[in-house]
Amino acid sequence: MHEFPHEDGIIHLNHAGVGTWPARTRDAVCRFAEENARRGSANYRDWLAVEQRLRERFARLLNAAGPEDIAFVKNTSEGLSLVAYGLDWQPGDEVVINNLEFPSNRIVWESLRDRFGVRIRDVDLQTAEDPEAELIAAFSERTRLLAISSVQYGTGLRMDLARLGAACERHDVLFCVDAIQTLGALRLDAHAIGADYVIADGHKWLLGPEGLGVFYSHPASRDQLKLFQYGWHMVQAAGDFDRTSWEPASDARRFEAGSPNMVAIHALEASLSLFEELGMDQVEARVLENSARLCELIQAQTALELITDPGPERRAGIVTFACPSADAGAVYRSLQAEGILCANRAGGIRFSPHFYNTEQQLETAVAAATKLAR
């Protein structure tokens, strides 16, 4: 695809780590830099229009009620912290997490123990036959929030978010979704799954730069969060610098304390335009086709052992496999040296192809891994 003019020999299978930019994203950043160098801030109003378009694109991507539910954050960790340190905790309140989570979706909740006396229920999903049932069984009358990744970063386990959201509603538990391994790969409807908060970075499957992410909050749940970051941008009358009285913005912009990251905004807006042109139905179908094909190829090799659940309801874009007769770290380093970009996760090798990766690339990557794993 002309949007991804990779150097010869590069096979990018690391979208669960750091995604590659489309050509249009590169071009948007170059245009912005050139304009800034030549004209300074003369076109700042145009920049604000790009910022608003990005907000609107995210609202459509998440099926939010509108762009007023969308805030920009530096990264997923910041968005999770807005929730963790925005809620009014009482000693003995509980948060349910699990032992497969990326550190960002574990550390922030564990930090509440000493500070507020919050209890952390860390559910073992390593061998769970019904992960959602295990999480729901951990709820008690003191459970305030369930924090879950939509897809687990190491094993690629895809969670049934609608089932978890329904359980949270029944038990009056807040539902906080780390969607970094879903947005840009699969469809995610924040309204349909009953999410109170959805957070994701733009630099993985969304094919944007590091340093900019999205924080969705349902209006009723947004009002439960106390603010701990303040500045000129988060007030209702932003831009009225002579006003001495102020109040937080009524919408999600209240979480954006200061000046926006305009370079990253131009980049990510361009990336999201590609997803809208293609349609997330088509993107999701291709991602799932690629992960299914990878599972087939890996299962056909005796030197490789599939870690990811290949079931269609459990599989997303991540496919992880072990190398029983070889050191996974060594295999990973050799693959990287050959230009097959991947990751060393969950005790094995993680491939994460996007919609544009070809079957030939997948076959080449698995053949290389098989040779190294023998």
Structure in words:
- With 374 residues, the chain is of the alpha/beta class.
- The chain folds into 2 domains: 11-21 and 280-373, Aspartate Aminotransferase, domain 1 (Alpha-Beta Complex); 26-277, Aspartate Aminotransferase, domain 2 (3-Layer(aba) Sandwich), CATH 3.40.640.
- Helices cover 38% and strands 14% of the residues.
- It has 12 helices and 13 strands.
- The protein has helices at residues 23-39, 44-62, 76-84, 104-110, 112-116, 131-137, 161-171, 219-222, 262-278, 280-299, 328-337, 359-373; strands at residues 11-12, 70-73, 94-98, 119-123, 143-149, 174-178, 197-201, 213-217, 305-306, 319-322, 340-341, 343-345, 348-351.
- The strands form 3 sheets. It has a 7-stranded mixed beta sheet with strand order 2-8-7-6-5-3-4, with helices on both faces. It has a 4-stranded antiparallel beta sheet with strand order 9-10-13-12.
- A hairpin with a 2-residue loop joins strand 12 (343-345) and strand 13 (348-351).
- The longest helix is centred in the C-terminal third of the chain and has 20 residues, at 280-299.
